[in-house]
Amino acid sequence: MHSLDSSLCPMTFATLVSFFLTLSHSLTLQSDIEALQALKLSVDPNMIPPSSYLTTWDFSVDPCDNIGPKFLGILCSSPSNNSKSRITTLELDGAGYDGFLPPRIGTLTELTSLDLSRNRFRGPLPDALKNLNKLTRLSLSGNFFTGGIWTWIYRLKKVERIDLSENCLSGRIPARISKLRRLTQLSLSKNEFSERIPNIYALQKLQILDLDSNMLIGSLPKLPPRLRTLRLSHNKLTGHITSLVNLDHLISVDVSDNWFTGPINRGVLALPRLSHLNVSFNQFTKMEVNNYFGSGSRLRTLDGQRNHLRGHLPVKLVNFERLEVINLAHNQFTGQIPMAYGQRLGRPWRTLFLDYNFLSGRIPPEFGPVAVRIRGSLANNCLSCPLRIPLCRGQQRHASACHGVTDG
C-alpha cells in the first residue's frame, strides 16, 4: 500500500516526469483523482487493513483505466467524446477506516452514489457535500460524524435514499429537507437530533422514515401519504397517534418508548396493510378495537406493553386472523381473560404476554393443553391460575393488591 506522497520519494527525475505525463493524459479528470487522493490521505494508514478496498488505490495507474483489482469501490462514466471520465460511484467497504471526510470530496460532482458506511470516519460533514447534486444515494451510516446537516442536505435535489444513521449528528432536522421531492428513504436514527420533526408532508415519494433513538420532541407532524415503514422509537414525542389513520400504505409502525397518550386508535389497528405495530413503553390509556373489523387485517404483531391501558381485554382481537404475537403486559387491564382467546392459542397465536395486569377469574380451558406450545406469561395478575400450566408459572398478585379491581 502506498499513497501518492510516499510513492514520489524514491522516483528519479525521469520517472517523475513520466508519472506526471501519464496523469496529464489520464482518462480520469484530474480533480477527481485529487479527490480520491485526499480521501485516502485523510485516513489513518494504520487503520487500513491489508485486504481492504483502500489498499487497491494505486495512484501510479489511472482510476478509470483499470479493469481488475485496482481501485475497488470505484465506478466511472464512459464518455462518448473526448471529455474525461468521471467518478460516478464511490462505495467503500466497512473495513473500519479511521479518518475525516475531506472538503475536496465536493469536487466529485458526477457522483450518483456515495457509501462510506460501517467505518470510523469522524468530524463534521463538509459543506462541500452540497456540490454533489447528482447523488441519488447517500449512505454514511455507522461512523462518528458530528455537527448538523441543515447547511447542505437540502441541496441534493436528486437524492432518493439518505442514510446517516448511527453517528453523532445533532441539532434540528431542517425543514428544507422537504425540498428533496425524490426521496424514498430517510434514516437519521441513532443520532442526537433534537427539537420537533419538521413538516415533511411534501415528500410524496417517501416510503421509509427512520428517526429512532434521537431526542425529538413535540407531536407528530402531518406525514407523507405513501409511508410504508415508520420508526420513531426512543424519542420524547408527545400527543396522540390518531393522524396515522390516514396512512393506508403503512406496513410497520414503531413508536415505542415515547410519551404518547390517549387511545391506540381503532383506525390505526384497522390500517389495511399494517403487519407490525409497536406502541410499547408509552402512556396510552385505551385500546380501541372495532367490533366488526379484523378478518381482512394483515396485523401479525401487536406490542402494547408498559402503557396505562385500562378496562377489559379487547375480545375482538380474535378477529385478527393473522395475528401471531401479542404483548399487553405491564398495563392495568382488569376482568377475565375472554374465553375466545383460548380458541386462538396456537391458531395462530404463538406469543401471548398478559403478565403484570389485574386480570381475575379462571383462565379459558384451552390454555392448559396447548400452553406448552405458547410463549408468554400470565404471572402477576389476580387469576386462578394452576402452576402446572406453563403460562401460569410465576406468582400472582397478593390479594390486597387485587381488592376492588378484580371486577374491572
UniProtKB/TrEMBL annotation:
Signal peptide: 1-26
Keyword Signal: yes
Alphabetical list of InterPro entries matching this protein: Leu-rich_rpt, Leu-rich_rpt_typical-subtyp, LRR_dom_sf, LRR_N_plant-typ, RLP29
Domain Leucine-rich repeat-containing N-terminal plant-type: 30-77
Entry-linked Pfam families: LRR_1, LRRNT_2
A GO-annotated cellular component: membrane
Location in the cell: Membrane
Protein's recorded name: Leucine-rich repeat-containing N-terminal plant-type domain-containing protein
Organism: Gossypium gossypioides
